[in-house]
Every structure is written in structure tokens, then in C-alpha cells.
Amino acid sequence: MSESIDQGELQNRAGRLVDAARKAGADACDAIAVSGVSLSVDVREGKVEETERAEGDTVTLRVFVGKKTAAVSANRADDPADLAARAVAMAKVAPEDPYAGLADQDRLLKTLPELELLDTTEMTADQLANIALEAEAVGLAVSGVSKSGGAGASWRLAGVVLATSHGFEGAYLSSRYGMSMTAVAGDGTGMERDYDFDSRTFFEDLDAPSEIGKRAGERAVRRLNPQKITTRTANVIYESRAARSLLGHLSGAVNGASIARKTSFLRDKMETAIFAPGIEIVDDPFKRRGAATRPFDGEGTAAGVLKVIEDGVLKHWFLDGATGRELGLEPNGRANRSGSGTSPGPTNITLMPGQKSPEELMREAGSGLLVTDLIGHGVNGLTGDYSRGAAGFWFENGEIVEPVSEITIAGSLNDMFKRMVPASDLDNRYSAATPSVMIEGLALAGN
């Protein structure tokens, strides 16, 4: 599989662009070449519904003329001299950006680490179809499932090369495999649907299609005949799938760009306890077979493991070179390529698990809401105000008693983070990894 992307050609392409930009008058520049191939198959009711293969081949040249910058992209390797001339001409008439520039040379990665990024198992359309069909068949066989909402399987390979005018050149290949199934239970206006999915760097790590289908079917059936609750204050447990959204809200709030723009509710909270003692949140770009594992960031710099939250205390923003310079802080290798430049962001961010299972937390809480599904995006990044539609299950005496829906959870992330208690069931598959979490005393708006 790795031979289907020619890394040597990607490296040559990036190198030619850098050389051409310097000859065209750029004071500094970098070039990123990305090539990828993906294959996906969707099935429904036992038949292949769609097969899609996509191939991409993109180069982006970014140039700096003093503190002015511009970038050009091409789908194919157009004439490097022409691309470079256009980029330099654009930069000369661009406004100055006092924070623009390549990463400091002493921060460049010197030796690429060996990481588990690439599985050489190549998938065919027939193989993907069989995976999806198996997941769907098992889901449909679950008692109470009335029809399929579809199933799918996918495979992707990507190659990345980054070269800079001050000496960095790095390249890597990565793979990704995925599958999903959506099941529908009930009939008419009483229908409910739910899904299950998995996505991994290595094919051998994927859950079996039968497990995906069974879980999807069982989740849909459990949601039948949901009840409504009255408005109240209650303990809330987010299952790990839903809890990932809370980690996403934190990641946005500690993004250096949000801090620089003063649009984060955590902008004045560095070295402040924003979680309870004992809470640890770690960002690890070298996580074994991680979804966002990478040897270098979008500027070619070395990146270490960050303890973003240590014993409940906020310790780091996510910083690339530009936001680091703007904030007067040392960048920490969290640059992502974004359009014509970079933007900071997490890699593999993980809320470390606690000691108690979700069932134990439910027994301790007594009664409350188990959230399995969230709706909408009602979070104010500036104030931390939180309002999300939710569905799930009501529990009493630590036991689930009925499905519930049409609920709005309201609160403040400042308060929610401080009351967050992680369970022990860490779901470590995704770039944002969390266990289930419990938050006491949230406002629930119902009937």
C-alpha cells in the first residue's frame, strides 16, 4: 500500500518549490505537499449503495517578504517558478503581520521519531462492502430493529512532506480504517435510531463488524418510547461518546489563537485550578497508533507531551509560532496547517480515567440523567455558558429506569469543569479520548 504514494516525488516537489521561491525573492518560505487516496463503500438493506474512491495531490507554497506573507496552492505540481513568482508578488502587496515567520531554527526537529502511523493492509471495494454488509446484517438481526439506516466501511492513506527554506525536511505516511452502522427501531412516529462506529490507524485494531452492528441495534432499541422529564436540577453522567464534546470545548478555550483574540473564557486562568484536584488532561503527539499521532507539527518543530491540566491546574495553551510570538510565550509544537498558514490545536488529547466505573458513579449519584446523545452547539466560547440539547436515560437508585429525550442541559463550563468526575472506562480510540464523566447539580430543562 505504501508504494501507491511516491514520497520521493513529494519531497522533490516541495524542495523545488522552496528553491524557486528563494530565487523569486522570498526572504523565507516553506512548502507542504500532501497526497492521499481513500476508498469507501456504503450499503443499505443488503445492497451496495455507493462506492467512492478519491485521490488528491496538493502543494501549498508559503512565502515571507519581510513581515509580509502570502501563499498559493495547486492541485498538481504546476511550474514551480510560476507558483513562486505569484506567491512573492502577492506577499509584496500584502499587509504586514508582526507575528509572521517560520519557526525558530533551533526548534526544528532534527531526527524524526519512529511512530506507528502506517498499516500496509490495503483494502478493496469488495472487502469493504463485505465488512459493511456484515455489520448491517448483525444490526438488523437485533430484536426490535425495524430497518437499517445504512452501514459503511472505509480506508484511507495519506502522505505528507514539509520543507522549509531554513533547513527542515520531513515526511511521513499514515493510514486510517473505519466502519459504522446505523439502526432504526420501532415504526412510524415512534421510530428511534442510533449508531455505532470505529476508526483506527491499524486494521487489526478495528472492532469486529458483528460487534459494531450489534451495538448499533441494541442502542437503537434501548431508545424506544422515550419519556419527558420536568425541569429540575440533577446529577448528569455523560457516557464517553458524549463526554468527548466537553474535551472539545476545553481544547477550543485553551487554543492560543482564542487567547490572543481574547475570545476564550479561560484567557486569564493560566496556573489556576479550573478542575478538581487530581484531574489530568494530557496531549500526546506520539501516542501509539493514535488518530492524530505525527512526528512533527505544521512548522516542522519538535513537540513533546503536554500536561495541559495537571492536578486540576491549567498549565499550557496550544501554541504555534505566530500565537507564541503574539503572546510572548514559547511555542510548543502544536501548529496545524490551515489554508495559507498555521493555526494551533491539540493532537491526541486525553482526559485521564478515574477509579470508579460508570455504574459505580450512577450508584453514588442515586438518580439522574445518563447522556448518550447531544444536539446543537450551544456553547459560548467567550463566557463559557453552556446549553445543549440531550437525550439518554433516567436512572434511579443507580439503575436505568427509562429512556428520556427533549432535554436541555444548561450551565457554565467554568462550574462544570470544577465538578467533573471521570470514570474508569477510557475510550482511547480517538484524537479526543475520554472516559464517561459525572457532573453534579446541572440544570435540566424539560416539560
From TrEMBL:
Limits of the Metalloprotease TldD/E C-terminal domain: 232-446
Domain Metalloprotease TldD/E N-terminal as annotated: residue spans: 29-91
One protein family per Pfam: PmbA_TldD_2nd
Residues covered by region (Disordered): 328-350
Comp. bias intervals (Polar residues): 335-350
Signal peptide limits: none
Domain annotation Metalloprotease TldD/E central: ranges: 121-224
Family matches, as InterPro entries: Metalloprtase-TldD/E_C, Metalloprtase-TldD/E_cen_dom, Metalloprtase-TldD/E_N, PmbA, TldD/PmbA_N, TldD/PmbA_sf
Family classification: Belongs to the peptidase U62 family.
UniProt cross-references to PANTHER family, sorted A to Z: METALLOPROTEASE PMBA
Name of the protein described by the UniProt record: TldD/PmbA family protein
Organism: Roseibium denhamense
Lineage: Bacteria, Pseudomonadati, Pseudomonadota, Alphaproteobacteria, Hyphomicrobiales
